Backbone:
């Protein structure tokens, strides 16, 4: 008798269950038209049909994984994977927060104006990108090396500055983070 | 206007396009310079382990669009650069494989098996010459097949396929992509379903953007760059960083081996290699023309077939111990994929691999060119601008090919130092570069969060053994599939069985089911 692998069963059942929720709850509640619509006595395909078919594929895929996927090919996430992912996301989160808020905070502390008015002025417009970008690169190098080094900091700052030279200096119409949001 | 007129206009569009500069009165068109720049960048990227052609294509696209804008003149220089990268990266991948036993791209793995032993014997330059010659030969062959086949296939599609058949053909392509990638139809279908679902968020025909949960972020739809770059690039960066973290890294010193003996590639050598190159070029071209089957499989098949022939002939040294034929079989196969995988792109509008995804993305962003069968439509009196661009693309591929034959080898052999750039430093820089390039396109932090979200999805999929490529291709084809189905449904008067009433559509659907069933049986068989 065929042995079902636990990892395949969890993955397959998980996606099959998610597909049922998507098809029966999310799609009907979040689409204005149904699977089919009658417009001026003509039947047309509604907005709910395509995502329902996608959910159907997910359901079928879930069942195929449970029933047919060989146990030798089963893969599962380890606690180590999740630990690494959470550290990585923390670095990304802090980096994005710096990118978004460091410039506006700096402007609020050192000037009387608003960041929106200064978002095209040096050095304010680069403050968030340089600090956030450098933090991202330095943090990830540090994550792999197990410590933050001066070399990592220099590489982080250097790469952020190089990207400013590539993207911002030659083009007037390109905006670096976060200048399109503010 | 006939075919010949369009071919000539396509060539002129490349050679008489906007001038970049002139040397002693000779005009140098910008498109030619962009092909050269892309080709050299591609070799450098391919020679750097951890980077790949699609990464360079993804990062350079927004910069190129900023330089050239969204006008008609932008398409050929931008596409020229991307095609150059595509050609160069395949050649460059052999450099670290041969010199340091580290494949620069996954499809160069088989090159390490014979390339590195040749380096250990002191014949690294000869091995690089063999790799370059085989790669350029494979590339030339597949470009010729592309130029001959794509228009013919597109004409067949236009002549014989109506809306229901085109819908069925899209379903068949998606079924093939989901089934054959990584040999797990269940996981392929899962990836495909996720891609379709993402494609339908924030879209639809009704005033209310479906599946947007009432949020402004989702109401705008998920940006294509966030999905493609998130899953393909960011996910790969996350996975690779963890791999490096988990490896107990060695001291990193590279042993120097004295290079001695004959490093030249003689005619007698070429004569011995030709049968292996020819066989692999055909294998690579056939594999490349089928959507969803990548160059890694082509390289494996080319190597396997070459080895079988080598054993039959009883030649020495055997494959895996530094046989020049092993390098030739692998490199000819993986290089011949790159031209052939534009056959489904240009004739059907269906991308078969990651590089083709970025070419479609470029065409989509700039506008003025919609890859698909309508490109090859001839009109009696007027010029079809899309057909001119298609022939311009063919001309650019031949130019990239000519560059490969002339300067490719020299540049490739000078790129050995790129293999020594530490991956754990390079990958965070690539991540920042990717995020920056997405922001300059979308100008909202929400796009970066979505990219990170899809990056995590890409990472998780890789960890669970699910290929992310069907997701990306389904995302790109999702809107097209729905549109085709809506039109087919309307044109058949609301017939719910429109996919099964015409013999051709029904055949496509039957083949789609058959492909999935055969792949399931094969997947179970190979596991037992």
Residues:
């Amino acid at each position: 008798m065929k042995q079902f692998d636990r990892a395949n069963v969890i993955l397959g059942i998980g996606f099959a269950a998610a597909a049922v929720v998507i098809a029966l709850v999310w799609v009907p509640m979040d689409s204005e038209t149904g699977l089919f619509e009658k417009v001026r006595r003509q039947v047309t395909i509604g907005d709910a049909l395509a995502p329902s078919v996608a959910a159907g594929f997910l359901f079928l895929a879930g069942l195929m994984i449970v029933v047919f996927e060989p146990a030798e090919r089963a893969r599962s996430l380890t606690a180590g994977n999740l630990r690494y992912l959470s550290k990585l996301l923390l670095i990304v989160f802090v980096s994005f927060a710096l990118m978004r808020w460091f410039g506006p905070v700096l402007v609020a502390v050192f000037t009387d104006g608003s960041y929106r008015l200064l978002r095209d002025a040096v050095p304010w417009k680069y403050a968030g990108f340089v600090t956030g970008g450098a933090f991202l690169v330095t943090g990830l190098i540090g994550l792999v090396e197990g410590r933050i080094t001066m070399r990592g900091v220099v590489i982080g700052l250097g790469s952020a500055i190089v990207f400013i030279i590539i993207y911002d200096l030659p083009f007037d119409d390109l905006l670096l983070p976060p200048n399109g949001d503010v | 206007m006939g075919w010949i007129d369009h071919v000539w206009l396509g060539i002129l569009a490349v050679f008489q396009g906007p001038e970049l500069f002139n040397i002693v009165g000779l005009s140098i068109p910008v498109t030619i310079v962009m092909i050269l720049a892309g080709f050299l960048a591609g070799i450098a990227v391919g020679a750097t382990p951890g980077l790949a052609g699609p990464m360079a294509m993804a990062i350079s696209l927004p910069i190129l669009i900023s330089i050239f804008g969204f006008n008609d003149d932008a398409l050929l220089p931008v596409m020229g650069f991307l095609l150059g990268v595509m050609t160069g990266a395949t050649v460059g991948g052999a450099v670290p494989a041969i010199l340091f036993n580290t494949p620069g791209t996954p499809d160069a793995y088989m090159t390490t098996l014979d390339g590195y032993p040749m380096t250990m014997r002191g014949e690294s330059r000869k091995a690089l010459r063999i790799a370059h010659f085989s790669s350029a030969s494979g590339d030339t062959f597949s470009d010729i097949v592309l130029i001959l086949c794509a228009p013919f296939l597109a004409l067949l599609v236009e002549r014989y396929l109506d809306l229901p058949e085109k819908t069925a053909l899209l379903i068949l392509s998606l079924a093939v992509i989901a089934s054959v990638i990584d040999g797990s139809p269940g996981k392929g279908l899962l990836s495909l379903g996720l891609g379709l679902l993402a494609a339908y968020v924030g879209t639809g025909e009704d005033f209310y953007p479906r599946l947007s949960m009432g949020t402004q972020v989702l109401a705008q739809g998920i940006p294509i760059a966030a999905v493609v770059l998130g899953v393909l690039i960011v996910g790969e960066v996350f996975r690779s960083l963890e791999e490096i973290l988990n490896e107990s890294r060695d001291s990193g010193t590279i042993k120097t081996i004295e290079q001695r003996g004959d490093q030249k590639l003689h005619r007698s050598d070429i004569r011995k290699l030709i049968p292996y190159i020819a066989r692999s070029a055909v294998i690579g071209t056939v594999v490349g023309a089928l959507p969803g089957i990548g160059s890694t499989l082509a390289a494996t098949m080319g190597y396997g077939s070459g080895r079988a022939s080598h054993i039959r002939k009883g030649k020495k040294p055997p494959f895996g111990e530094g046989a020049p034929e092993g390098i030739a079989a692998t490199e000819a196969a993986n290089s011949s994929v790159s031209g052939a995988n534009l056959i489904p792109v240009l004739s059907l509008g269906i991308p078969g691999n990651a590089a083709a995804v970025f070419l479609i993305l470029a065409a989509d962003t700039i506008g003025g060119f919609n890859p698909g069968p309508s490109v090859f439509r001839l009109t009696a009196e007027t010029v079809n601008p899309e057909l001119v661009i298609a022939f311009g693309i063919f001309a650019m591929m031949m130019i990239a090919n000519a560059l490969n034959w002339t300067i490719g080898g020299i540049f490739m052999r000078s790129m050995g130092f790129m293999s020594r750039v530490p991956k754990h430093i390079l990958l965070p820089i690539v991540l920042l570069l990717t995020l920056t390039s997405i922001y300059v396109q979308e100008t909202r932090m929400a796009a970066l969060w979505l990219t990170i979200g899809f990056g995590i999805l890409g990472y998780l999929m890789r960890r669970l053994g699910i290929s992310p490529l069907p997701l990306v291709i389904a995302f790109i084809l999702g809107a097209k599939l729905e549109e085709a189905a809506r039109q087919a449904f309307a044109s058949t008067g609301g017939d719910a069985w429109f996919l099964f009433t015409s013999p051709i559509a029904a055949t496509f659907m039957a083949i789609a089911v058959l492909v999935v069933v055969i792949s399931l049986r094969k997947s179970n068989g190979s596991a037992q």
Q: What stands out?
A: Residues 6-73 of chain A form one domain. Chain A has two domains: 6-73, 79-168. Strands of chain A lie at 36-39, 42-45.
